[in-house]
Task: inverse folding
């Protein structure tokens, strides 16, 4: 895919690169932090990121992060039941009852011999795309966006796109896609992801950097 050539869009890409340069070091540092979660984090740390990503659909990232911290403070993320978790999510995330059920169900799937075992399950896959496919196919409440988000947040996001509304809006503005889809099937997700990868290569911004850059452009922060 070639970089769009209209004068207006050239200026948009120029602005994107200008925004990227002063943020590049901070973006690289944030991605290193994600990698350290996998390298040195506990099973609870890894599952915390998973729970965060389950919460994010139609909810603000900061509110989801606060909800995770609230669960951890009360030791409910690993030990709480659906009702206890839902109560902590109530004022912070949308669809708190459904998401609480999904967290508890995911915890059950990730528990082996009475202990959380997220790392061994993820590590068994030789390719990150296979891990993503397994997550989508086996855990309720997880689509390609959420699975990609989780894998990025534990250091495996170099080749994955997190196609949330912020990213899709910017991809449309950059003429990478013609329109924002009303829904994302597997094929549609992978098709847009491929286009985003090609665009990242053309503008010489790594895909994982581009995601955080576009997020910053919309939210004015580099978060997760």
Result:
């Amino acid at each position: 895919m070639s970089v769009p050539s209209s004068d207006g869009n050239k200026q948009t890409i120029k602005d994107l690169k200008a925004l990227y340069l002063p943020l590049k070091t901070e973006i690289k540092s944030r991605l290193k932090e994600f990698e350290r979660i996998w390298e040195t984090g506990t099973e609870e740390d890894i599952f915390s990121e998973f729970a965060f990503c389950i919460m994010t659909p139609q909810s603000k990232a900061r509110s989801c992060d606060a909800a995770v911290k609230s669960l951890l403070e009360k030791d409910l993320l690993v030990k709480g039941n659906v009702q206890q978790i839902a109560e902590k999510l109530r004022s912070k995330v949308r669809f708190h009852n459904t998401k609480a059920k999904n967290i508890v169900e995911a915890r059950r799937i990730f528990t082996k011999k009475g202990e959380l075992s997220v790392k061994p399950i993820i590590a068994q896959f030789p390719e990150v795309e296979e891990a993503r496919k397994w997550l989508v196919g086996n855990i309720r409440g997880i689509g390609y966006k959420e699975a990609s988000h989780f894998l990025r947040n534990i250091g495996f996001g170099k080749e994955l796109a997190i196609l949330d509304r912020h990213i899709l809006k910017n991809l449309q503005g950059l003429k990478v896609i013609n329109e924002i889809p009303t829904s994302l099937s597997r094929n549609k997700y992978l098709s847009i992801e491929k286009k985003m990868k090609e665009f990242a290569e053309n503008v010489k911004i790594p895909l994982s950097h581009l995601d955080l850059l576009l997020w910053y452009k919309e939210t004015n922060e580099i978060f997760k």
